[in-house]
Amino acid sequence: MVDRLLERGDEVVCLDDFNDFYDPELKRGNVKKHLEYDRFHLVEGDIRDLDTLSELFARFDIRKIVHLAARAGVRPSLEQPLLYEDVNVRATIHLLDFARERKVDQFVFASSSSVYGGNTKTPFHEDDRIARTVSPYAATKYAGELLCHTYHHLYRIRATFLRFFTVYSPRPRPEMAIHKFTRLIYEQKPIPFFGNGQTIRDYTYIDDIIQGLIAAIDRPFDFEVFNLGESFCVSLSELVEAIEKASGRKALIQSLPKQAGDVEITYADVSKARQMLGYHPHTSIGEGLAKFIEWFEREAYSSR
């Protein structure tokens, strides 16, 4: 998102704490080229720190907040639920409070397909009832949505939240499935294969997500929620086969029991985003994996 905003001439203030959820040097490498822009301002700090936020909002005239910060990952949230509540819920209140006090024009919140939980009605639509979250991570993301609505209702903050469906890309978090599976294939190590391989995900390539995200930034609705997905489902078994095809390598499989917190399916109905945002996802899983493998061989595997 920062790449796209800077390319088109916007001024961007980025707040990041560079925590150790994964190697901070990877994060610093990702942000390095942004520092070449005079229109990019990096503030190192934690969204839970009110002094940091106060100084940031005093220093910059923030007109739009795009809240992408979160403690991510379903499985780690099972082990550290209080940390996830602190970062994903309490800190979101901090940002909403500053949005209210400074009369920010728009608040865009990154939510997750995980809020649909054990929903059995497919594809998932924004109007579906949310009542069956199955992980602390999912619960905290839905709590963030409720808070956005509350602040919109009480203080008329213009809020849009976007439910991302299994985003993959170059420069990913290392524990994400596609990156992890690819690395293990190249290292000729077994892939931990949880369940029977029939869990289904709506894998969405980063360029399509960014298209929807930028559209949401440029079209500030009073209050809306949108699914951003590819609206095409791939099973875990099919994903591994697609990585094998894109990489030209064979995977080794280690069969394991199903993991707690996993859902059977994610599948986005994106008709609302198509109509109201002009959102048009177009990157097939094969095309997206080819781009990812190209990056992986150039930037990740070649450095070993």
> Multimeric state of these chains?
single chain
Number of strand segments: 12
CATH superfamily: NAD(P)-binding Rossmann-like Domain
Largest sheet: 4 strands, parallel
How many domains? The number is 1
N to C succession of SSEs: HEHEHEHHEHEEHEEEHEEHEHH
Helix content: 40-55%
Spatial order of strands in the largest sheet: 3-4-5-10
Uncertain segments of ≥5 residues (pLDDT<50)? none
Question: What count of helical segments does DSSP give?
Answer: 11
How far the N terminus sits from the C terminus, by CA atoms, comes to 28 Å
Query: What is the C-level CATH assignment?
Result: Alpha Beta
Layout of helices and strands, plus pairs?
Blueprint: H1 2-7, E1 12-16, H2 24-31, E2 40-44, H3 50-59, E3 64-67, H4 74-79, H5 81-101, E4 106-112, H6 136-155, E5 159-164, E6 167-168, H7 177-186, E7 190-194, E8 200-201, E9 204-205, H8 206-218, E10 223-228, E11 234-235, H9 236-247, E12 252-256, H10 271-277, H11 285-300
Parallel strand pairs: 1-2, 3-4, 4-5, 5-10, 6-9, 7-12
Antiparallel strand pairs: 8-11
Helix pairs in contact: 5-6, 7-9, 7-11, 9-11
Overview of the structural elements:
By secondary structure, the protein is α/β, with parallel strands linked by helices. The chain has a single domain (46-300), classed as NAD(P)-binding Rossmann-like Domain (Rossmann fold, 3-Layer(aba) Sandwich). 42% of the residues lie in helices and 17% in strands. It is built from eleven helices and twelve strands. The chain has helices at 2-7, 24-31, 50-59, 74-79, 81-101, 136-155, 177-186, 206-218, 236-247, 271-277, 285-300; strands at residues 12-16, 40-44, 64-67, 106-112, 159-164, 167-168, 190-194, 200-201, 204-205, 223-228, 234-235, 252-256. The strands form five sheets. A four-stranded parallel β-sheet has the order 3-4-5-10, with helices on both faces. It has a two-stranded parallel sheet with strand order 1-2. Strands 6-9 form a two-stranded parallel ribbon. The radius of gyration is 19 Å and the shape is globular.
